[in-house]
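Dear H.,

Thanks for agreeing to be a second pair of eyes. The structure we're designing against is below in token form, covering all 339 positions.
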């Protein structure tokens, strides 16, 4: 039908704009998946595209704009962790669902060692991608700064340590941890340990700070062990805690996998949960609802975090000014049986 309307030539962006009754820029924004378009305009453009049979010529556009229509998600962890732990699955789902509306392709890269990072940096700055999402950064990782310096828009998941990035998305980890520990205090627990996350990550530092906030001025002593968010590290930390503090009556862990590891050790030691020791996790992962007893956990909105990261990156790729380049999402405690 479209072919007859414009004399057999391939329909142009201008033809779509004219039929939809909008400017050329609006059509371009709709095609590029920008959120800054009204629902009415978006529908009008999609109707015009359908009617005219317009097909965006991506190859021609790439030559003009140097766009690749590809976004990289870089995770500074091992494959084992990425496919095992609920945080990654939720975040990647959120990123994927937001990008699916934009026509941008997502590639996943995992890099742990300095060598892997260097190789990856060469790839990411070599015009293979339009933008980069980074999660699970450790320490003052130089990668985001180098990407920005090379003109590659970058958005980080989780507040990084030792860096001042332009744009990142995080959960309110400190408030979530504080709420969890105050809940334990309200239940009359007075020997409350924590299994904290890695202290070279903002999330690890913030959740430990929340634990300390809650105990401040209560006279309840701090009992701190450390893990790396994995179930194995939760088991090892719990064994260490019980060896030194056999009388502890509660443990707040900085992730659900560490909580599940801690619960396994408590059961092996013949401790009743929550009778002898109450346990609270952080993630509100699917596994939390199915553990025995079901795990009380701080809910962090991983999918929403992923979606926010993707929206911010798409806006940056499209050259839009970000009103709020840093987004912090709320957390809340989900009460189940373990505490």
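And this is the sequence the design step returned. I haven't edited it by hand at all.
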């Amino acid at each position: 039908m479209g072919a007859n309307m414009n004399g057999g030539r391939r329909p142009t962006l201008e033809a779509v704009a004219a039929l939809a009754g909008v400017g050329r820029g609006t059509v371009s924004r709709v095609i590029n998946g920008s959120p800054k378009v009204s629902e009415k305009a978006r529908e009008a453009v999609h109707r015009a595209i359908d009617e005219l049979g317009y097909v965006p010529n991506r190859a021609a556009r790439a030559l003009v704009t140097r766009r690749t229509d590809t976004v990289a998600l870089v995770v500074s962890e091992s494959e084992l962790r990425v496919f095992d732990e609920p945080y990654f699955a939720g975040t990647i789902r959120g990123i994927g669902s937001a990008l699916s509306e934009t026509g941008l392709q997502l590639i996943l890269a995992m890099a742990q060692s300095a060598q892997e990072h260097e190789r990856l940096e060469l790839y990411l700055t070599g015009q293979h991608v339009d933008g980069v999402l980074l999660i699970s950064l450790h320490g003052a990782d130089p990668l985001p700064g180098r990407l920005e310096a090379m003109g590659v828009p970058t958005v980080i998941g989780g507040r990084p340590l030792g860096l001042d990035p332009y744009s990142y998305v995080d959960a309110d980890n400190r408030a979530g941890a504080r709420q969890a520990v105050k809940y334990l205090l309200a239940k009359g627990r007075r020997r409350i340990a924590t299994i904290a996350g890695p202290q070279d990550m903002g999330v690890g530092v913030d959740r430990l700070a929340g634990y300390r906030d809650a105990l401040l001025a209560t006279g309840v002593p701090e009992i701190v062990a450390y893990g790396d968010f994995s179930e194995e590290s939760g088991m090892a930390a719990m064994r260490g805690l019980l060896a030194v503090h056999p009388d502890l009556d509660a443990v707040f862990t900085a992730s659900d996998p560490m909580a599940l590891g801690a619960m396994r050790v408590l059961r092996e030691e013949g401790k009743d949960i929550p009778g002898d020791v109450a346990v609270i996790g952080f993630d509100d992962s699917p596994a939390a609802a199915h553990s025995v007893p079901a795990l009380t956990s701080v809910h962090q909105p991983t999918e929403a975090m992923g979606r926010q990261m993707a929206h911010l990156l798409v806006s940056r790729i499209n050259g839009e000014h970000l009103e709020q380049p840093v987004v912090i999402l709320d957390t809340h405690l989900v009460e189940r049986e373990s505490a």
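Two observations from my side: The mean pLDDT is 90. The domain at 2-56 is CATH 1.10.260.40 (434 Repressor (Amino-terminal Domain)).

Warmly,
E.
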